[in-house]
Amino acid sequence: MPSLQQPLLIVTDLDGSLLDHHTYRWDAAADWLAELQRHQVPVVLCSSKTAAEIVPLQKRLGLTGLPFIAENGAVVQMSAQRRVRIPSDSPDYDALCQSLSELQRRFRFQGFCDFSDPQVAAMTGLSESESALARQREASEVIVWRDEEEKLEAFRNALAQQRLQLTQGGRFWHVMPAGSGKGEALSWLLGQYDNAPVTIGLGDGPNDAPMLDAVQHAVVIKGYSKTPVRLTREDTQQVYHTAHYGPEGWKEGLDYFLTQHH
Questions:
Q1: Strand ordering across the sheet containing 173-177
Q2: How far is 243 from 240, CA to CA, in rounded Å?
Q3: Where does 135-180 have alpha helices with state H?
Q4: Distance of CA 14 to CAs 21, 50, 232, Å?
Q5: DSSP single-letter state for residue 128
Q6: Measured distance CA(7)–CA(248) in Å, rounded
Q7: Alpha-carbon span 236 to 114, nearest angstrom
Q8: How many other C-beta atoms are found inside a 10 Å radius of the C-beta of residue 240?
Q9: Which SUPFAM superfamilies match (predicted)?
Q10: pLDDT tens, 185-195?
Q11: What does the pLDDT look like over 4-50, one tens digit per residue?
């Protein structure tokens, strides 16, 4: 079992995992966050949120200055001075929006670049200032699909020709560079360490599966998604499924792997 005494890294999804799905609070996880800080264990946030959204959240959670993974794995920030796109040759946001606007001739959808801050606020329940941060994108686009379900496959193929891929998020679809994702981003990040730390990952959604497959110990937090979290890994004894949702499940998962008396 992992322990707080060894080099350890926690990587966690935000919405529905560390943050409550409905209230965005994290009270149940606060004691563990303090304990991890005391042992200098980095907590790496890994989210579909943008870097602009994650930086203030890091501050509120007491995680300022730690690496994080943004935009579902299309962006990794190692430090305030160093932020990279995954893969490194992926198109920037303007080029991505340009590719998508061409596809709008064939498919009915809208992206965040087509909306204003008030429109995004109305769709997401975020405030207008939070919506502005959600629209500060660097490498991926959030889209609202307005076409028939049957056309998604053709849309996926059209994206693939542009070296792009489609990922389902909690509420929206995300268009990402091919070869990016939470798993790829985490593998890249761990490759920056001389001695790779022991990893514990926590997530609740289908888009967390690649990240949960890439860590040594995985906590699948009970979630609200109709789509189950399907892992490909064989070592099921290193995977723990929680009975609780959100931050309570987050606490339950770390209790399981880091409290020595099972």
A1: 109-111, 141-145, 173-177, 164-168
A2: 10
A3: 152-161
A4: 9, 12, 22
A5: H
A6: 25
A7: 43
A8: 20
A9: HAD-like
A10: 999 999 999 99
A11: 999 999 999 999 999 998 888 999 999 999 999 999 999 999 999 99
Q: Hey, what's the torsion of the CAs at 232, 233, 238, 244, to 10 degrees?
A: 0
* CB contact set of 39 (below 8 Å; sequence gap of 6+): 4, 5, 8
The tokens describing 81, both together, are: 């001075």
Structure tokens at 126: 């975020």
- Percent share of the chain, pLDDT over 90: 89
Give the gyration radius of the chain's Cα atoms.
Answer: 18
Q: Structure pTM?
A: 0.94
pLDDT of residue 260: 64
Q: Is 15 a catalytic residue?
A: no
Rounding to the nearest 10 degrees, give the CA dihedral for residues 207, 25, 21, 132.
-70
Structure token pair of residue 59? 């501050």
